[in-house]
Amino acid sequence: MPDVRLASPQGKWILLTTVLGSSMAMLDSTVVNVALPRIGRDLDADLAALQWTVNAYMLTLAGLILLGGSLGDRYGRRRVFVVGVVWFAVASLLCGIAPNAGVLIAARALQGVGGALLTPGSLALIQASFHPDDRARAVGLWSGFGGIGAAVGPFLGGWLVDGPGWRWVFLLNVPLALLCVPVAVRHVPESGDGGRHGRFDVLGAALGALSLALVTYALIEAQEGSILVPLTAVAGVAAGIAFVYVERRRPDPMMPLDIFSSRQFTAVNLVTLCVYAAFGGFFFLAALQLQVVVGYSALGAGTALLPTTALMLLFSARSGALADRIGPRIPLTAGPLLCAAGLLLMLRVGPDASYAVDVLPALLVLGLGMVTLVAPLTATVLASVDTARAGLASGINNAAARAAGLVAVAALPLLAGMGEEAYRSPGAFDEAFGRAMAICAGLLVLGAGVALATVRPLPPDCRKPECLHHGSITAPPLEGVRSKPRLSVESVEGDGLGGPGGEGRTGRLGR
């Protein structure tokens, strides 16, 4: 049984390590969007290259995050976490010194691999190290500090871009890693699940990532009119079908398809796809709109976007408590509708937009909508499957959200009619941005409709989200496995994602 106490020096070092590690990945998910215009100008990159700068990272992260958690179980959670931090830092260094867009995109893909190793590992180390009586508080502190990191990210990114330059958005990860790794090696105990001997579903992970990559390529390059575009699209669909076939046939799949036999789980993941596709598209384009059309600096754009993450950080726990009382259907219906209203208000943000009159009201409505839906969405995912699979369900939901954002960033410029040089023309970009916001609002309305028609009340003793203070805008929080309070820890699925066989054990966390 883990016995590290939170108040002890070792407990504080463990918390510092996990916060540093998760903050590296979370910061990169938010600050890069602010740097895109300057990256495009310095590297002479077109819009497709900027899309790949965002999507290369999300592609490998979404495709490998389930496998990354299983590696921690097998080979040691601290070991895999440290490998992930080092990998992420080396890839960040390559991003920072990239001489052209091609190298930057390749390095971003490598960053995503590191993120897939360290992201589940940060929560895994908390769950596997702390005494049961302290674990809930440790998770709360971890999620709170992580939320602060997410809120600070756009501001920090803008300051770096306008100051020392966009390359420091990536280079900043190197000193963070140099601090994180020695602390982890010295103070964090090793843990794992040596009793697992199932094979890793490498083929499933490869097919899933390949399908996403091919579909993304086809969407981004569609305006070129090349024969490769339809061929790639067909190959992407074929890889997706092969992924489903492999997962259905394997005895130890990465993503057991029978988990979707729960109607509630399937419905909530459909809602997730709709809302996080809209969020991914919005935050990619909004940072460009504020700089290209409105004329903000990178720092101004980053600061302007702070209200959404700040609202989530401050009020997500209260939103979860409200959903406990009234059930998830109303929040999961009202939340996307509020977000849709916020995106429609963004249509007022043009060349002469006032922040107080035009930008801020839209972001406040969007932020309130996100606050309303994120915690109930996570709670509904956790409650829709058996306790032994709650961690796996959380991981699938998190990966689905990232994949939805990935596809949205690839598809929205095509659907909105953005040319490759649109971000260099304020007028052309402004027109396309309006069409994109209407599409995103439609996705959110669709998500609200799915929630209204399919989401059912939660059982009274259902699991509650552990990450109560959540500030990420790219995906719902990863959650550990928790059951009834005041029971001892029998075993902990530290990564919260399930192991090679896809079934996490029940982690009974005192709270």
Labels describing this entry:
0% strand, MFS_dom, Growth Hormone, Chain: A, mainly alpha, 16 helices
Task: Characterize the structure shown.
- With 511 residues, the chain is mainly alpha-helical.
- The protein has 2 domains: 9-193 and 252-454, Growth Hormone, Chain: A (Up-down Bundle), CATH 1.20.1250; 202-251.
- It has helices at 9-42, 47-75, 77-96, 101-129, 132-162, 167-171, 173-187, 202-220, 228-249, 263-293, 298-304, 306-326, 329-345, 355-383, 390-415, 426-454.
- The chain is globular.
- It comes from Streptomyces curacoi.
- Residues 14-459 form the Major facilitator superfamily (MFS) profile domain.
- Keywords: Antibiotic resistance, Cell membrane, Membrane, Transmembrane, Transmembrane helix, Transport.
- GO terms for molecular function: transmembrane transporter activity.
Residue windows where pLDDT falls under 50 for at least 5 positions? 482-511
Overall pLDDT level: 86
CATH superfamily of the largest domain: MFS general substrate transporter like domains
CATH architecture annotation of the largest domain = Up-down Bundle
Q: What is the top-level CATH class of the largest domain? A: Mainly Alpha
Number of H/I helices: 16
Structural class: mainly alpha
Instruction: Please give the number of β-strands.
Output: 0
Helix content: over 70%
N-to-C order of helices and strands: HHHHHHHHHHHHHHHH
Radius of gyration based on Cα positions: 21 Å
Q: What number of domains?
A: 2
CATH topology of the largest domain: Growth Hormone, Chain: A
Major sheet details:
none
Distance between the termini: 16 Å
From the spread of the alpha carbons, the general shape counts as globular
Strand content: under 5%
Keywords: Antibiotic resistance, Cell membrane, Membrane, Transmembrane, Transmembrane helix, Transport
Membrane topology: Multi-pass membrane protein
GO cellular component, one term: plasma membrane
Organism: Streptomyces curacoi
